[in-house]
Amino acid sequence: MNTPTPNTSAREIPYSITSHRTARDLAPQADWHPLRESEHVVQLYEADTFLIQALSEFIGTGLAAGDPCIVIATPEHRAGLDERLQLAGLDLVAARESGQYLTLDAAETLATFMVDGSPEPSRFAAIVEQIVARAAERRRQVWIFGEMVALLWAEGQHDAALRLEAFWNDLHTRHAFVLCCAYPIHGFGGDALAQPLKEVCAAHGRVIPAESYTALATADERLRVISQLQQKAQSLEVEIAERKVVEAALRMVKSDLEVQVADLRRLHELSANLTSTLDIEAVLHEVLQAALLVQETDLGLLSLCDSEGEGLTLQTSRGFDDAFLKEVAWVPVGGGACGTCYAERRRVVVEDVETDPIFAPYRAGARQAGFRAVHSTPLVSRDGTITGVLSVHFRQPHRPSERETRLMDLYARMAADAIENARLYQAAQDAIQVRDQFLSIAAHELKTPLTSLLGNAQLLQRRVAREGTIPASGAKAIGVIVEQARRLNKMILGLLDVSRIEMGRLSIECAPLDLCALVRRVVEESEPTFVNHNVDCLTPSGSLIVDGDEVRLEQVIQNLLSNALKYSPHGGPITVRVEQHGNHARLLVTDRGIGIPKQEQPRLFQRFYRASNADRQYISGMGIGLYVVKEIVGLHGGTIDVESGESAGSTFIVSLPLRGASPAAEDREAAYGSR
Question: What is this structure's pTM?
Fold first, then answer.
């Protein structure tokens, strides 16, 4: 900012000048005395009390001389100034009434000419210049105090404050007045504000230091303080230089930490992605993608050892054309960077394929593919087996940093473990498939002779009953044969169902059927087995129609009923109930048997699972019945639940969606028949 050249012809308040450079010349008393007729002064201050004192002397001098005075300040400073002026015996009421003394609010006045956070020149001229012009009409010295710039500075709007200072200087070229601005010295704390302070000082014709300097009475005291300030300034410059060195080091550390955090985040993401899948192809893709990101390249290969151990077979790649991929589809042991890495079980770095002898046989292919450097890392599993090689390629000669090699080693280890896990999972899946196939074959193979056995035994049983040619003991033996054959047949059918479920081949053929009628029929046909039990069958008088497979739903009812009988070894009542519940039909089978421990109920419908209290009471079973029942009910769009407690019996609840409209209200409310 340019300070206007003082008008040498203007009236000056007298002051003495010595002819020799004395201590007073070198360290003059710094205050606003003397002043020219037109001058721009800045007062720095530490405490408001000092500012009010200095301001009362400045404005008081003008008022006492009969000059017009303008104060544009905060409410607190205006109130403090008025109090000091009145204590000095000045009649402010009369001064205000005559127009000699004008006070304005700094924030309100500033707001009248601010546009988009910056003072606007035409509005400043229309408002502030008009005030100054009216005061100057008295043709006397005009005294102005303003702290609008201080408000802008306190808000961090330094450019706007300096722009306003320039407006005041421009106003000096058209009107004569003495302007005193004030800034709190704490507003210039920090090295970053050193240059802005210089610009503030340059915008004023005179700079008055804060009170810690101006309060010194003698020139000698001021010179001593100046020397101390010079020493402090020098020390601060050294400290600032040292701080800048430390800050630069901290920035480097911060940058390194940010890189490490980013690396850890990538490792975490890779780990999460690898643990979320057991598909080998997906694992290989994730590993290669992560390696390319950390190396900041777009060229890479990942190859796995072939089954014979004679070389590497390419599995996934990025950035290469088909011609190059065809060339590296299989790499022999010791061939190029990746073959050497495989053969020697170590990291291989080719900084420049044009000069490294390892890559001599593949140099032409590298030129065509467009890379100049290769970094290959072996994939070594937990048991020390090398499973493959991860290679990243660079378009320019490249020497990997310690960070890059460390991360590549980590990625390679994670890849090897993930590949091993995926292979183990695949092997387990293959074993499960073999087992399921075995169960299916075994069940079919066993079913054929059992069918013949059962048929002949039943034929013999009927003949004995008709002709009576076999004694009673023989007939009983035949009955045992038939019963055991049926039991074995039921077990085989259960195994067949388990096999079908595991292979996704269990299916149903749905048709409309009356669940009430089906339940009544199954219970009636099972009556011969109710030796020690009293079974009640409760169904609505009407029908509950569902879309279902009659054979499979009969299997569900028979299983739940036989379980109720089997797990009530000491007899007791059993209730089979059918009811409507909303838009569903429900089948409830309740017994008073051994019950099921609460903590074991969540696993009750798992394959081959049996409750511990059943084994303790030597009740036989394979743990497949409820597993099959749950699958059948699920295929019908239904659910099965259990309510039980150990030694408190059990209730199994099957819920199936009704077909079409709900039965009439009278059917839902009808009395239950009993068997």
Answer: 0.41
